[in-house]
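Changelog-adjacent note: as of this version, every example in the card shows the full chain rather than a window. The one below runs 236 residues end to end.
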Amino acid sequence: MVGAAAVLLCLAASSGCVRAEKENGEVGLMLTGEVRDAAGLTRSEVERMPLAQQFALLGERYDRSQDLLADAQKQVSEDKWLYNYRGMAPSNGLFAPTGALPGAGGEDSYYLSASRAIELEGAIGERADLDRVLAYFDAQGWAYQVNDVAEFHHEVYADTDDGYLLEYRVQPGGWYVMKVSAGPFWGSDSALLAELDKRTLDEAFEDEFTVPGVRVPFPAWDDPVVNPPKKNLSDR
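Full-length structure tokens:
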């Protein structure tokens, strides 16, 4: 009877619930409002924030991810890199590379992802081409894992210990890729993306290449609306 009451209470809770497996094998219940995201915040804490504050947090996370990406890129080359994913727009947290937050739905979490590619003359994807990036990760004190996908295809993943994941991939053909992921974080990806889109000129995303450290500035909440609302928001 107690178990049934707990289930009903859980279903009625605005924060929702997920099933949690205990060490002794019993199945228990955990309020998703107690689940902390990559920034250490619970969903209930984020829901109490004004949208302007959530928007500012998105901007801080964008800048942090871009700084991490740029510093890692510089270990390889300070020349121009091709934009793959720019990394400003939040994506649905259910598809975060590190996994979804327990109890997350389709409109309450997000993650960030940005990647750049560069074609290095004479490069064919040798494992030794990871060495400069590995030395940088060692200097930062970050744990990392190297995956040898094929003879000339190697990848390294590094955990920055503050909610961000860096990936560097060397591969045949000479196009090497640096990627950063952040999150998942509690917050509505669609609501934040709509606010971001309204404050950012479309022309800001026309360049195909950028040097490490140069990115589209994140707008302030008080910036004027420069774009009318769109039904289909652009990938940014």
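Structural remarks: The first helix runs from residue 2 to 12.
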